[in-house]
Design a protein that fits this description.
The structure holds 3 protein chains of 3 kinds.
Chain A (H helix, E strand, L loop, with lengths): L15 H14 L3 H20 L5 E4 L4 E4 L5
Antiparallel strand pairs in A: 1-2
Helix pairs in contact in A: 1-2
Chain B lengths: L7 H11 L6 E2 L17 H17 L4 H8 L3 H9 L7 H11 L3 H7 L3 E3 L3 H12 L8 H16 L4 E3 L1
Antiparallel strand pairs in B: 2-3
Chain C lengths: L3 E8 L5 E7 L4 H24 L12 H4 L8 E8 L2 E9 L16 E8 L13 E2 L1 H15 L6 E5 L4 H5 L3 E5 L8 E4 L2 H9 L3
Parallel strand pairs in C: 5-7
Antiparallel strand pairs in C: 1-2, 1-6, 2-3, 3-4, 4-5, 7-9, 8-9
């Protein structure tokens, strides 16, 4: 079996709303809840990395030709 | 869930089918970096002019590619690509280094190489004329020499306002 | 310490399979070493092609040491195949860049292949007698396996360079040129059926 590198376990305390969101995303993306959390962490780190370099994060609506900066407090 | 592993016999068959062919894939603009799109900047003739300019100038200065790469502290394979592949957009640093060693003006070369844009059409027109008069031969003939000198003169005399990409 | 698993390659000059190792998580140093190992052979091969006025392979200018910075981020993982003490192939994947475009698995997470490469001495375009065959197959296998353990069901996607299209078309669905890709490369994805065919030989 691959990926038997050391893994550490933590207990995560979530509110009802947070748990529901996690479950919903998990179903929608066909990913386990653990996989969703790991994806979120990877995305968070990547966004943080680029923001730290001075870049900005935008959402773009091509149809409306609108671009809005996402003010992210990370 | 665990993926099934290919058995040896099937692997042998698939490896033989692959037969040492190219397998390279390259991702979308990488999420980790903001290097701008390379491919669609200066038009074909202008980029051909850049490739040719570097190559001919180097030869006019009687430098081999290895010499120039070493002196300008650029990677030999990047220099090879610059001279051979006019679709390639080199790193700005490489353009700076080459411009310095070939004694060519940096802003103009940044435009020609696709790293910056210029408001004026004069440079583009000169580049197209130069490209049309140039072809790859071992030794620069007299006409190529003249074309090269004329183009360099235009580059040097141009007052540039360029925009970085 | 990265997980190292046995895998195999095919010898270039016989029908024999050769033991190799799949390293599941390369470090920056590993990438740098591979780049340094590959560079002289690559440059020599390119010089020969240049002299013979042969068109260069499209990926020749890749510098793996520059790719090493991607490994600072969790989203990226680089795997390699080692044989006879040298890196024979490299594969960089992203876990957050891929979303399926195949109708049967639309929108599902896909392991996206950022870069894949075989050592220059294994490529018929660069050397007369490739040393090892099957690097591409072994790397695809590794990608599918990693996709599975990450919970992506073995789904993989990539943008192929034109010269590599025949290889990927054999096992994956060609979704055509992608306008969203800076070089307009064709996007390929592997469906569940195709994965079965690839790994098991049955449709």
């Amino acid at each position: 079996m691959s990926n038997e590198v050391t893994k550490r376990t933590m207990t995560l305390n979530l509110t009802e709303a947070e748990m529901q969101a996690l479950e919903s995303i998990s179903v929608q993306k066909d990913l386990s809840k653990t996989a969703v959390i790991r994806q979120a962490l990877r995305l968070y780190q990547l966004v943080d990395h680029r923001l730290a370099k001075g870049e900005k994060l935008f959402f773009e609506d091509e149809a409306k030709r609108e671009k809005a900066e996402l003010m992210v407090m990370i | 869930m665990k993926a099934v592993r290919m058995n040896d016999e099937l692997f042998r068959k698939r490896a033989a089918e692959e037969n040492g062919s190219m397998i390279s894939a390259i991702g979308l603009k990488p999420l980790h970096s903001k290097r701008a799109e390379a491919s669609h900047q200066a038009g074909e003739p202008v980029r051909f002019a850049f490739s040719t300019l570097i190559c001919h100038r180097r030869r006019a200065l009687r430098l081999t590619m290895e010499d120039l790469a070493q002196k300008a502290k650029v990677e030999l394979d990047e220099l090879l690509r610059i001279e051979e592949d006019s679709a390639y957009v080199p790193e700005p640093r490489t353009v700076h280094q080459l411009a310095s060693h070939l004694k060519l003006p940096i802003p103009q070369l940044l435009v020609l190489s696709g790293n910056a844009t210029s408001a004026s059409t004069e440079l583009t027109e000169a580049a197209v004329r130069f490209a049309a008069r140039s072809r790859a031969v071992e030794k620069l003939n007299r006409e190529e020499n003249e074309a090269l000198n004329e183009f360099v003169k235009v580059l040097v005399e141009q007052k540039m306002t360029t925009k970085k990409k | 310490m990265s997980e190292r698993r046995r895998c195999r390659l095919k010898a270039g000059t016989s029908d024999d399979l050769v033991d190799a190792v799949l390293v599941e998580e390369l470090t920056k140093d590993d990438l740098l070493k591979a780049h340094l190992d590959w560079a002289p052979v690559r440059i020599e091969a390119l010089r020969r092609l240049y002299d013979a006025k042969v068109r260069w392979p499209e990926h020749w200018h890749w510098d793996w040491s520059k790719k090493a910075d991607m490994l600072d981020l969790l989203a990226y993982r680089c795997m390699g195949i080692e044989c006879e003490g040298q890196t024979q192939g490299l594969l960089m994947v992203s876990t957050i860049a891929g979303k399926s475009r195949l109708v049967e698995q639309l929108g599902k997470a896909v392991l996206y292949i950022e870069f894949v490469e075989s050592a220059p001495w294994n490529l018929r375009d660069l050397v007369e007698r490739p040393k090892f065959l099957g690097v591409g197959v072994a790397l695809l296998e590794a990608a599918i396996e990693f996709s599975t353990t990450e919970g992506f069901g073995g789904r993989i996607g990539l943008h192929s360079l034109p010269q590599s299209e025949p290889f990927y078309r054999r096992y994956m669905t060609d979704l055509g040129p992608d306008a969203g890709h800076s070089e307009g490369l064709r996007y390929f994805e592997m469906s569940a059926d195709q994965m079965r065919y690839f790994l098991e030989g049955r449709k």
